[in-house]
Design brief:
- The chain is α/β, with parallel strands linked by helices.
- It is 40% helix and 14% strand.
- Strands 3-4-5-8 form a 4-stranded parallel β-sheet, with helices on both faces. The protein has a two-stranded parallel ribbon with strand order 1-2. A two-stranded parallel ribbon has the order 6-10.
- Strand 3, helix 3 and strand 4 form a beta-alpha-beta unit.
- Helix 1 crosses helix 6, helix 7 crosses helix 10 and helix 8 packs antiparallel against helix 9.
- The radius of gyration is 20 Å and the shape is globular.
């Protein structure tokens, strides 16, 4: 289990344990609660200790921290290649990869890095399942506290530019684990979302309005601001790394502000909610309710390399 200390990775480890399946979390250093972890400070040295454990399958939830070019290629591609090589050397029979639905219309470094590894995995002599989830609950939860405090809910444009079928950590983890046994998921690329319908930013604001029992102000922000920042910082960013990283983050922000996290249909040229497969039962409004009650925490993403 790679990326085990991230939010999805922890959910996968919990799901495996709940089904009586032995998990071997791979971590850089000892982590509390991971008693059977394989500690490996450098993924390039993973092959021998992994082979000693003789895993039947590998689930990788590794993801770059920022999505910036250097980080993306180092983690979303290079580290995944090393993990795949270690899995092959260890005799694993199945490699389950947590990818992302946004790679279907790539414009950013991390998307090309993920696609590069996906192709490497498809060509490898191992059964694979490539899972491409939509947005996670945690990525749609950053405004809950500010809205509860009386501040407006910020949207891009009119709040209806994009939509997604958000997915909980637990439902995503269950889907990943089921890839180990569901034959229709073998040697397949699998876009998935949570239970529908698709939700816009305006819909998210309405959910909070319902839960808080009062009107929620909505304030629009133009995505052009992010595009201008990305373009404006890109030239000085070629010589000043810190500005280059800011340009990359602005470009990532612009992408998510203008592109839906749903299946894209090349024939229609549109993102199609009806073509986006659904899994699980958890709904975003219930997650918001738990956050407002202090019964859940807002995750910051899967930042563990391995």
């Amino acid at each position: 289990m790679l990326g085990a200390t991230g939010t999805i990775g922890r959910a996968v480890v919990k799901t495996l344990a709940g089904r009586g399946i032995a998990a071997i979390p791979v971590v850089r250093k000892p982590v509390e609660g991971f008693s059977d972890a394989l500690v490996c400070a450098d993924i390039a040295a993973l092959a021998p200790p992994l082979a000693a454990r003789q895993p039947e399958a590998v689930i990788s939830c590794m993801a770059s921290r920022t999505g910036a070019p250097d980080d993306a290629w180092a983690v979303d591609h290079d580290a995944q290649v090393l993990a795949l090589e270690a899995a092959l050397a260890a005799g694993a029979q199945h490699f389950v990869l947590l990818s992302a639905i946004c790679v279907q219309r790539p414009r950013l470094a991390f998307q090309f890095a993920k696609l590069g590894f996906e192709e490497r995995l498809r060509a490898a002599p191992i059964r694979h399942s490539i899972v491409r989830p939509t947005a996670y609950f945690k990525s749609l939860s950053g405004q809950v506290a500010r809205v509860a405090a009386g501040k407006p809910f910020l949207v891009f444009g009119d709040g209806r530019l994009t939509a997604t079928k958000p997915l909980s950590d637990a439902d995503c983890a269950a889907y990943l684990v089921d890839c180990l046994t569901e034959a229709e998921r073998f040697d397949a690329t699998l876009p998935i979302g949570g239970p529908g319908p698709a939700i816009t930013l305006r819909d998210q604001a309405k959910m909070l309005e319902t839960l808080l029992g009062r009107p929620v102000a909505v304030r629009g922000v133009s995505p052009a601001i992010l595009k201008a920042a990305a373009v404006g910082l890109s030239v000085p960013g070629r010589v000043i790394p810190a500005l280059g990283r800011r340009a990359s983050l602005a470009a990532i922000g612009h992408y998510y502000a203008t592109q839906s996290m749903l299946v894209f249909d090349p024939a229609s040229g549109r993102y199609e909610a009806d073509q986006t497969p659904e899994t699980g039962a958890d709904r975003l409004i219930d997650h918001y309710r738990a956050l407002l009650r202090g019964e859940a925490a807002v995750g910051l993403g899967d930042h563990a390399v391995f």
